[in-house]
Amino acid sequence: MTTFTSLNEACDAVTAFIRQCGDNPHADGFDELALGLFAIQFAHNAPFANFCRAENRTPETVADWRDIPPVPMRAFKPLDLTVLPEAKRETVFRSSGTTQTDRSRHFHNRETLAVYHASLGPWFAEHLAGESANRLLFLFPELSQAPESSLVHMMNAVAKGEHCFVADGEWRIDGNAAVDFLHDCATQNEPVTILGTAFSFVHLLDHLDADAIDFQLPTGSAAMETGGYKGRSREVPKAGLHQAIAAKFGMASGRIICEYGMCELSSQAYDGKLGQANAAPRLFRFPPWARARIVSPETFAEVELGQAGLLQVVDLANVGSALSLLTEDLAKRHADGFELLGRAEPAESRGCSLMNLTHD
Amino acid sequence: MTEPALDYFLADKPGAELTHSLIAEACQTLRRNRNECLATLGNEQIISKLAEVANLWRSPDYPLRKMALTADPAETGFPREVLAAGLDACFAEWTQKKFFMLLTQEFGDPTRLQSFASQPNRTFSMVNGPQLTAHIAPGNLPVPVFQSIAFGLLLRSAQFVKCASGKSLLPRLFGHSLHFVEPGMAAALEIAEWDGGNESLESALFAEADCVTVNGSDKTVESIRQRLPLAKRLAGHGHRVSFGYVEKQANEVMGTQTVISHAADDVVAWNQHGCLSPHVIYVEENGSLNPARFADMLAGELEARNETMPRGPISIREAAAISTARRFYKIRAANNAGAALWESEDSTDWTVVHEDEKQFQTSPLNRFIFVKPIEHIDEALHVLEPIREFVSTVGIAASEARMRDLALPLAEWGVPRICELGQMQRPPLGWRHDGRPPLGELIRWTDLETG
To answer: Which sign, positive or negative, has the C-alpha torsion A235, A238, A240, A246?
Structure first.
């Protein structure tokens, strides 16, 4: 096992591994690093350590990264799941939510934030920036407008070349600015990639519908959609949203890539690459430094290929918090990725609007 | 008696293609059949037939009951033992005496359904049910559908029951038992299934029906309300939530084991599906049974119940909701963050969470219960304020005198049903769903003023 004497050392080791994976996606070292991170997180992240002790899984007893106890996503709300002492918590990523108490908090210092950036860049580039230097239209705020959003951090980090951010701090889209940017791309025949959350796409599509505007964007244009509505717009089923995006911007639906990420994670999964066929069903894949497991909600054992279960992610880039996380998403296990099946909540009996009152 | 062939209702014919005109025609046939037979029957005849149906369903050898109990739990929603207990609890209420009591409760004089009857103010009045009622059946429990059909028959209404796709088996079996006992009554009943929101089929149904009853999510009720012409009567019941309340001397009066056992009855009944099952049980502090001890004992009781009445398999989605919630409370428990958890081993069969936070919490159901300490009823009503308008039932463990004391503030606050803990999923035949008269909201009164 790799033993880290400091957090910085752990950050350096993970960053080095991420670089190594860039040259060789099958590079060895994941298992060692995972156990090393587990040890340092156990030593310095008290709420996590208490949990591990209660589960009888400590660095002394765990010899396989799969046995590191996964932290439930929701625990980032009431607990400070971090190895950082209070004075060192320079940046905080918060999930969306209406009050401070129902928002997850993921703390970073300069070094762990650098790992976040090291992780997000290459995997984004591999899936969305591989083939051409497109212009980028971000349906996101600038970093200064939403400094506690991990997604906004990420978007600002990947913003290169000619680009434009068209949302304000309340995530409201300036529809006219978006139209101007897209119009310019169309007239200059410059392919453009539009990046946004599902609700931002709904807002933009509504704006275009209201003004009866349709685009035929230049060949090579694309879209990156990341899930979630958070009550910010009406909810549109994914297939319908993608059809609407494809129709409104004049791009094939194969040019729409979905991103899966959250503030509690430091790596992201994508369900396709630009320039590839991306056969249905679309499968999400994390980078080599983050591994997805689909586990049975009854026993927590990994399910067989083709079976559904809860999505667990072991993300080495979560150096300063907890590397093994249990999401609340259901997924089907495939040999080469996973298919997202939606949130883990019973449909009928919790379908009551009231149910949103007390959960999340 | 061999297993009967089920081929009578639209839902019995899996290949049948439903169309707007087919639904409209079926409704017209129902009306005709109703006029020829059901409308001519007296209260005694209808009630005796309903009691006969109930007796059949309570008999272990009744073929239709056996079909229900041996069906795939995926189709009925419940494992054999849970379903059997639920059916028994329902049909035990269906006696002639109780049906007549229901009519008296609703109309004062049961003969009002057949002719004018006098009122205290010396006028006369009569009640008439809708000629055709459409029921939009809930997907979770079968009992509300059985009850809706029985009530429709009492009111001499032809009835079209719309079930969600794949959820019609139990209503059909019930319909077939009616057909067996009194074909004339079943001739005014149709059962079909389709996915809710089918505009073409539902517009035909809503155009034909005089009255629509809906049990479902608030969203479903709202959607139907918007599509229903103003003149049509709508009896809509959205999802509600319920909770238990253990008064601090309950264990001294009733015995600790009895209180625990009653709490387990309510958690196990219908595996907590349905609006009458508790999400949370509040236990008063400063009594001889402290809330954490209560939770511990309830866990032991649920483990024992799982032997005699297994929870059974549930969907991945339901299991995932339980296991993510469990893990959240485990990590909090490990950090002394005001929570403790008891759970079945290597399964999601049952879960008890003791949580200091007093706010109401919705359970992922399927035998997952929150136990929370509470100082007194006033504190409970204060923390429950956000769900005031959504509460259906409060199950109380207390002496009869204390129960009356507690009932008054609960009633004033807005709780429509208060019962003993252990009886939450066993409402009497005449219970007032959401505080409204069960037959009264479906009928029309005619007053005759003779001077």
So the answer is: positive
CB A317 within 8 A of CB A18: yes
pLDDT at A235: 82
Minimal CA separation from A285 to chain B, in Å? 22
Residue B241 to residues A170, A278, B238, B330, B395, Cα–Cα distance (Å): 34, 45, 10, 25, 12
The rounded distance, in Å, linking the Cα atoms of A139 and A119 is: 22
Q: Does B345 touch chain A (CB under 8 A)?
A: no
Read off φ and ψ for residue B304, nearest 5 degrees. Answer: -65, -40
Contacts of B365 in chain A (CB under 8 A): 346, 349-350
Inter-chain touch B319–A71, beta carbons under 8 Å:
no
First to last CA, chain A: 37
End-to-end CA distance of chain B: 59
Q: How far is B100 from chain A (nearest CA, A)?
A: 33
Strand partners, B214: B136, B236
Separation between Cα atoms, residue A308 and residue A297, nearest integer Å: 9
Which residues on A lie below 8 Å from B333 (Cβ)? 54
Is the peptide bond preceding residue B130 cis, with omega within 30 degrees of 0?
no
Chain A contact present for B195, CB below 8 A? no
- The complex's ipTM works out to 0.90
DSSP-assigned letter for residue A104: -
Q: pTM of the entire structure?
A: 0.92
Phi, psi (degrees; rounded to nearest 5) at A244? -65, -40
Tens-level pLDDT at each residue, chain B (451 residues): 456 678 999 999 988 899 999 999 999 999 999 999 999 999 999 999 999 999 999 999 999 999 999 999 989 999 999 999 999 999 999 999 999 999 999 999 999 999 999 988 889 999 999 999 999 998 889 999 999 999 999 999 999 999 998 899 999 999 999 999 999 999 999 999 999 889 999 999 999 999 999 998 888 899 999 999 888 999 999 989 999 999 999 999 999 999 999 999 999 999 999 899 999 999 999 999 999 999 999 999 999 999 999 999 999 999 999 999 999 999 999 998 899 999 999 999 999 999 999 999 999 999 999 999 999 999 999 999 999 999 999 999 999 999 999 999 999 999 999 999 999 999 999 999 999 999 999 999 999 998 6
Q: Which candidate from B238, B273, B348 shows the least CB-CB separation from A298?
A: B348
Contact A302, A358 (CB under 8 A): no
| DSSP designation for A302 | B
d(C-alpha B166, C-alpha B367), whole Å: 24
Tell me if B317 and A330 make a contact (CB, 8 A cut-off): yes
Chain A contacts in chain B segment 257-296 (CB below 8 A) = 273
Tell me the Cα Rg of chain A.
20
- Chain A and chain B share a number of CB contacts under 8 A equal to 121
CA-nearest residue to B327 within chain A is A72
B347 CB neighbours in chain A (<8 A) are 298-299
Q: With an 8 Å Cβ cutoff, are B320 and A297 in contact?
A: yes
Interchain CB distance below 8 Å, B317 and A348: no
CB B335 within 8 A of CB B364: no
Name the residue with tokens 């067989």: A304
Residue B231 makes CB contacts below 8 A (sequence gap 6+) with none
